[in-house]
Amino acid sequence: MPGALGRLDAIARSSGFGLIVLIVSNAIPLFGVLFLDWEVQTLLILYWIESGVVGVINVFKMARAEGPLLPTQHPSVFKVPSGAAKVFLIPFFILHYGIFWMVHGFFVFLLPVFAGAAAFLPGREAGAIPRSSLTAEGLAIAALALLASHLISFYFNFLRRGEYRNVSVAAQMAQPYGRVFVLHLTIILGGTLIFALGQPIALLAILVVGKTILDVVLYLRTHRSAQVPPPDALAVAPGPPGPAGPWSPGPPV
């Protein structure tokens, strides 16, 4: 039994496991588009919620980050205290990213106006089930799936694999902005075009697939650049042997 649990833990800690969860969670919006008549507004709200999740999780990543603040800083020689930096940078990130997220939401909710849409929802026939009720239920499921994907990546990649040891609080603060900017600039521009063209299902599906591909590329890039060496590799190599033995310092200069 312990051996089986160990194998399951090893699988979960691999980057492939997180990648599979990422793809599966992104497949739920595609299912909604193809089979539940999801509209582009639903997708944009979902991805806006996801960007908020990314920001909240990044606060915990910043709090856990232990990497050197300076790229050339060697932990055995001099270490800039990161605690003071966290006291300043974490509240700054919450304020700055929070404003960024609210402005993003402003554009998401006003996109139908910008795109020339006459109404938020099309008219319904008498007795028909409103699409908004189906969308709200599916939206909650999709949002929870994306939340689970980011939490799994945070736990297994950032904590268990030790990525926090190699990233500084300053570098971690900047990390979400590139992802959110690229993804949501693409999504909002694509959503505006889809609104203008009458929301064809094919274009909605392309939007979801394109977002998923960008997610996968950014996921692989992030976690490959955060490869963590084993603890032994972080040890300081001994200097040349001195006259008193292999671990003694060399003669004074």
Structural class: mainly alpha
The proportion of residues forming helix, as a percent range, comes to 55-70%
What average pLDDT do the residues reach?
77
Write the H/E string, N to C: HHHHHHH
Could you say which overall geometry the principal axes of the C-alpha atoms support?
A: globular
Radius of gyration: 24 Å
Strand tally, please?
Answer: 0
Question: Helix tally?
Answer: 7
Distance between the termini: 59 Å
* Poorly predicted runs: 117-121, 123-133, 230-237, 244-253
Describe, in short, the structure shown.
The chain has seven helices and no strands. It is mainly alpha-helical.
Structure notes:
69% of the residues lie in helices and 0% in strands. With 253 residues, it is an all-alpha fold. The chain has one domain. Helix 3 (40-64) packs antiparallel against helix 6 (169-196). The longest helix is centred in the middle third of the chain and has 33 residues, at 82-114. The chain is globular, with a radius of gyration of 24 Å.
